[in-house]
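[job 0412] stage=complex_fold ligand=adenosine-5'-diphosphate status=START
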Amino acid sequence: MAETILVIDEGTTSTRAMLFALEGRCLGCAQRELTQHYPAPGLVEHDAAEIWQRTLECTREMVDLAGGAERVAAIGITNQRETIVFWDKNTGEPLAPAIVWQDRRTADLCAALKEQSHEPAVQAKTGLLLDPYFSASKIGWALGNWPQLREAGDRLAVGTVESWLVWKLTGGLHITDATNASRTALMAIGSGGWDDGLLALFGVPRGVLPEIVDCAGRFGETNLFGAAIPICGLAGDQQAATIGQACLEPGDTKATYGTGAFVLTATGTALPTSRNRLLATVAWQLGGQRHYALEGSVFVAGSLIKWLRDDLGMLASAGESEALARSVPDNGGVYLVPALSGLGAPWWRPDARGAISGLSFSARRAHIVRAALEAQAHQTHDLKTAFAGDGCDWTRLRIDGGMAANDWLAQDLADMLDVEVERPAFVETTAIGAAMLAGVGAGLFNSLADAAALRGETRVFRPGLGENQRQARLDGWSQAMQAVLG
Ligand code: ADP
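[job 0412] stage=complex_fold status=DONE, emitting structure tokens
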């Protein structure tokens, strides 16, 4: 009997497969690191063949744990978004490196399009901005610069990471789900189809792209594990986390603190527009109906702690940051603006660089580490202001991601945002969201609301900081930020 759901979570730095019992208990996890390729400053590539090999290994382990493919009811896939893969339809082999979402090679191209005043139309159609972050300019660049892609002609297939994995799992199904498609800047998010004007603007032929489908359904089967397993759920990682946090009603908001930080507020079935440089994106699509979200993407979150640990040697482990932050009564006037790879929402300043301000001889390592953690609440507060300006203020925040394990950080978020912060006991919400979609797609649940019980228990952090102290922190951050923004 098929009593489990298998989730493939293909992240930026690692690939995982996880096995869930139908009531949501996690039965096991297999994980493999992915090699990061940095061929030149600003360039970030992955080897799509490695992504597939690691995925296959992890998935095999979880199928074995389940006791065979016949015991797996459905596969759900969630993935790093925007990263783009190029492969040969005949051989199923990659034709070029995958260009990763962090890659900035198309900064000049995007700046030129902005200069030519294309941004308002791009934003109106896609909900996105003209930034190298999104896939479209990366695809256009690759077609213009990698001759093997042009030479491949009709054999060329292009897709985001879930699209690549579905192709490999099924042996040739070329689909993408609406959430992943909404991050390419080639889909008109109001209609849910590829847009001819955008395809022409970025120089992408329609024929290389996959068909856009729902996030749940019976999309195809994989026969690689001994018996057929249907693939029933697909969503980009941040959308999957939104679903996994049960942010299903308009106003429900989650923030994921991993390498970067990504905040999404569900806005319902009406297409949102932002006047504050937030992104409008597809939260999920079921039965052809799209539910939308506003999104604020912050590029540097956990990577700041990693940098303090690995490059500056200030921390023995990421977890040590919590004890260090607690070891001092306040930040001692030190602020850290983590613009190490520019600033994302709501500033969108790729040229900005980070700063540590307010240093004196009394500043200790603990103050700098505390400032690094405090920066997360401040960046999130800046987003909250932008969301409020767009008519989507938050009354509560649901958090997850590797950094959310830090209790001090969770409390600081509650204090600075002045809202309750809720953290599930099982923080792998991205995988839960993919399992929920796969469960709905396989007919095990009637709706996402039915599947939401998979989220489990939560812990709440309540705001407790005095208003004067809170305002002093906000003012200190605002000054530090002004210096960085110039
Ligand atoms: P991703 O999915 O983006 O690879 P994760 O969600 O696994 O990232 O989170 C890992 C990040 O969280 C790392 O950058 C690490 O520095 C940071 N991190 C992990 N544990 C803690 C902690 N206890 N306190 C602060 N940061 C942490």
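DSSP finds 16 helices and 23 strands in the chain.
[job 0412] exit 0
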